[in-house]
Structure prediction request, 420 residues.
Amino acid sequence: MNAALTGLDELATRWEAALERQLPAAVRLRHKLHAAPRLSGDEHDTTARMAEELERVVLFEPVAGAGAVGRVGPIGGHAVAVRAELDALPVTERTGAAFAAANGAMHACGHDVHQAALTALLRASAGLDLPVGLVALLQPREESYPSGALDVLREGVLERHAIAHVIAAHVHPGVPTGAVAVGGGFINAAADEIEVLVEGRGGHGGYPHDGADTVAAIAHIATAIPEVVRRTVAPLNPAVISVGTLSAGDGAANVLPASARLLATMRTTDPADREPLVQAVRTMAERIAEAFGTRATVVRTEGEPVLVNDHALAQGADDWLARLGVDGAETMRSLGADDFSYFSEAVPSLMMFAGVETAGEEPQPALHHPRFLPGDEAVGVVARALLAGYLAAAERVLGIEHHRDGRAHPLSTEPTGAAR
Prediction:
């Protein structure tokens, strides 16, 4: 084992011990953040609270509106960014927790856990000799457009801080509780929106031959969409288009509306499938509308790209997690979307998923559910995932060749039972 790798081992031991000491305060911070959620674009209070908690560790500068960025460790050279999302959702909380939010917003996606975990990681880093710069990225607007991650990129944060890799971890009830799912390759889908507007000639329901029926046209378009996906995208490339809104008319039973509208989300996992699938939907909609004597206009709103994890970072983080005593899990892949994908498109990056559960609930509430409430132990799991991600990225920056058997050499002297 070379000297640089030995130095990282020693750093990890000291950092984990310091992190353990920071977790009680981080849990208390999590409760405060959870009780005071802020919606996308209005996260200034959340940013200010985190900056106050970290005022002795890092100096932040504003970014992307309500966000902030700050760096610790070496000033020059490449750095590793660790990201936490700031925003909550417009959901009325129904968890019954003593620290539940009461303002009509809710951290129903676990961002309060991510914020507290990043705070603990940074506070634990104080006094340590980091070999590579650590950039704390407090990112606004993950849950809505315009994307906060995209704005961070456009403001040149990666270039200004010479960020080589970006690391994140997200809570998820689909992963075994207390475990962390890591894997390379496709993780989350690209997300686009498709709007189909059908225009025709309104009329009387008793005289349909005198009108141009937009209801029939939009209904046929909606039911044809799954067939378009099947005939356009290879079966081994997961893809789906789901219709979320279908509207026509103003409530009258005997009036044929002159227009109808469809709004759908399109999820693809291969970048090469995005444009052909949109074009296939456009062709189908226009032809069906024409067959009904109507006109169809298809508009695509481009969203996040595919989130792709770097394979080498994933392998390194998996090994470091084992040394930190954190159990592994099968790689979590889904057709969900996260604007972290903009970072993974820009530099080799890593998104991990930490398994959580909501106590007393069966079946377990999903992300964005008003009863979703990860236990406080999730703060420590996410913090250790972020630590493992930083260490794996530092290895890449330092050019260390990874030859570690993490299972045989746990950092702790206590048995961990970790099996990755």
